[in-house]
């Protein structure tokens, strides 16, 4: 009787339970994903609260797109998928731009969105924020999954993490219907359902024959050039890349987010002679860079008349021959490929011909000398070069700070003027040239690295995400925003000759963006000269306080579409 009673009492004892909310949190924590960027609302408000209570850092934004950009750049900086959490339908759609941006730029990111109930959505019966989000997301990311049962949450996050970081990284969508969060299951079974991802991005070793072919082509060059892309920066194989470039002796050209892998002041850097080296090189090695529009697709006037051979190092085989023939494709992860190249080079790699190195140096020095006086003016109102000359000096004095940069002229000119000295310290608009990444990127850079951030914005670009200055103040982040304010898109002097409305590219003249920051308790400064700008930025970087500096730029400064005005089609018709 005693044994029977004991068994009955044990059977009646309450089981420890868990639910969908906690399994999502446990899956993230188990895999070291401890920071979440998002916007609360139905059906994920309580999930955000619970995440915070369980020790995750949850940063709540004013718009999902900016939270998504933060998650995307977090993935770039950490090599772990950044997490963006949104509500259903409109919130999901707001995050989708950032998800596509992450995929295009090869940043690992997971967009986690609550969604409406499948039964009603599939019958199109008009549920709250009804949308087949999985179908919408699929064309814009590497992978997309929907979870219907709490027991599958662990495996779903494991698959999402692997998809985001393996091979060529990118965005992944995870759809969590509202009913999922409240599903209850045995806690022990829940723990067993979780998956700790092991070796999510395994090394992909290049074939020895491909390594030999690449080095044979490089050794045959009379005018070699190495181009470093943001994939090389993402790889975090900094020492190996530096050793390889220096051992090769070849001039190198960093794409914008690869600046600082080797310092821009390195004697082999050809950034200031970009046009010359692209036109005159006979062998070009691409490391983590793609021959897309940013490199004129590897052909045309930019690349000159001289025949060229291309060596390409990339983890994606389909990238080879995408625009021009690749003479030596080297497929594998960049760290493994560069290590293999170094090992195979031996101890007596021949230096490139002196006449090539001397011609590149002469062109670089000449261009730097021509630019120097333009960067030293103290005009009021400022032009771009006077303002950027100040910021160039500040970045040199503070090489550990992170520079975030977007705009048209503000982006194009800053990319060439401001030298970078350490890797992954320049973050910008990426492959699409998309405007609006600034505030989200700055926030994630400050959160993920703990470093001060200098965010240099065109006034147009700032408009896409400006309300996030409240987010910056709320979390008291060490971010200094400098807005190059020339009263408009490209410039503030356009005139509408046909009516009283302002021209489409013109903003309110004399806007005081600094007052926005003051409204939320941050520091606002109006700077009208390079000297004032220098004092204000240094004070902000020293204090670590959220600061916005309204840098007054001559409204006539700037060119149509910056340096890509050729992409703007022109009408051949004349008005009668």
Label this structure with key terms.
576 residues, alpha/beta, Rossmann fold, six-stranded parallel beta sheet, 23 helices, 19 strands, disordered N terminus, Oxalyl-CoA decarboxylase
Quick recap of the structure?
With 576 residues, this protein is α/β, with parallel strands linked by helices. 40% of the residues lie in helices and 16% in strands. The protein has 23 helices and 19 strands.
Alpha-carbon distance between the two ends: 107 Å
Output the CATH topology of the largest domain: Rossmann fold
Shape: globular
CATH class division of the largest domain: Alpha Beta
Q: Let me know the number of strands.
A: 19
Percent of residues in helical segments?
A: 25-40%
Low-confidence parts lasting 5 or more residues at pLDDT below 50?
Answer: 1-8
Kindly describe this structure.
Its EC number is 4.1.1.8. This is Oxalyl-CoA decarboxylase. Pfam families: TPP_enzyme_C, TPP_enzyme_M, TPP_enzyme_N. The protein has 576 residues and is an alpha/beta fold. The protein has three domains: 177 residues, Thiamin diphosphate (ThDP)-binding fold, Pyr/PP domains (Rossmann fold, 3-Layer(aba) Sandwich); 158 residues, Rossmann fold, CATH 3.40.50; 168 residues, Rossmann fold (3-Layer(aba) Sandwich). Helix content is 40%, strand content 16%. The chain is built from 23 helices and 19 strands. The strands form four sheets. The protein has a six-stranded parallel β-sheet, sandwiched between helices. A six-stranded parallel β-sheet has the order 15-14-16-17-19-18, with helices on both faces. It has a five-stranded parallel β-sheet with strand order 10-9-11-12-13, sandwiched between helices. Helix 18 links the parallel strand 14 and strand 15. The radius of gyration is 26 Å and the shape is globular. It starts with a helix and ends in a 24-residue tail after the last strand.
